[in-house]
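Entry 14. Ran structure prediction on the chain below.
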Amino acid sequence: MRILAIGNSFSQDATTFLEPIARSAGLDWLVRNAFIGGCSLERHWENVRNGEVVYEYQENGEALKMVSIDQALLAEPWDWITLQQVSHHAGLPETYEPYLSELIRYIQKMVPGASIAFHQTWAYEFDSDHGGFALYQRDRKLMFREIKRTVDAMAKRHRLPVIPVGSTIERLRTFPEFDPQRGGSRLTRDGFHLSYDYGRYAAGLVWFSFFGKTPLSMVSFTPSCCDGHLCEMVRNSLLE
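Output, structure tokens:
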């Protein structure tokens, strides 16, 4: 399985643990992230048009080299390529087009054998100081609803399957163990990026479940910084 994410720091969060998760289940996956911090669909399309070498080509969240978007697309015979909107615009449908349509057409032209999926990102933490949070009245639940509504509509329009990381993060936040207002662990490290432990682990498991046919019970990998009981809780939440 070869997976390329065209994204930003949110796809970096989601893919950092994906290779070791798959490896622990006996699968040989190659996962790469084409990274520009805070990159929107509009900017990705601009980068297609100008061909600049401005992406970090990442493995497990670490840069291997700098590439253009064409170089990333042609680096492997990709099975899957993922797209996503920048986090603060993810719930604003007017920010998606024409860029999403153009990117899909371009990917299909450049890598006709690859399938395309859309990464549903997550809402910010309730007390996030990210400037874009004001677009959602600094209301986490409102932000999540708008992201889900918008991503579902765009995915339906373009017949793309959705990787539901945002939905999983929101569900985990209902557990006292992951609710900082009830003394639980935060799933973000700065109010918007996923935490290096359970947040990134949860996102990696969602991607593993989406792309793989192997049951989560086969996964033995847990990040060294995590408590085993809480990791099991994260895994079990995906089975509900």
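The chain has a mean pLDDT of 96. Will compare against last week's run tomorrow.
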